[in-house]
What does this fold into?
Amino acid sequence: MSIIDISEVKPGSHVTLHYRLSLADGAEVINTFIDKPATLLLGAGQLAPPLEDILLGLKVGHHSTFQLAPGQAFGPRNPELIQRVSLATLRENSVIGEDFSPGDLVEFNAPGGGRYAGVLKEVGETSALFDFNHPLAGQALAFEVKIIGIL
It folds into this structure.
């Protein structure tokens, strides 16, 4: 019978942890320290891969904050992901009578299935301008983690 070493985070580990993700100015994006901890399966896409990479090798009880350079966690901002969408396409993907305002996150049906989302920047006569970058793309972030358990 082999003994599984669960003393440190590895790819495929189930990790119970508290974590806080904040912007460089200190504004919190997510904070599990104020509520119950999260349990994540590494490699399942529940965290951005660069954030998962930070967890690899950490042990139960580890508590520290990691500073991530702009674009390190969610990639750089890509100007090609700022695109115009026809108002007809916008209507096809919305609930009847739904009004949109700049700053709204709107989901679209992707060709071939699936969904993708963009932030509405402006609405024109025939089209709307959307930013399909991840909202945290290009941002410097602080990632605080406290490992509670590893399975």
In short: Helices lie at 49-55, 87-92. The CA atoms of residues 61 and 98 lie 47 Å apart. The radius of gyration is 19 Å.
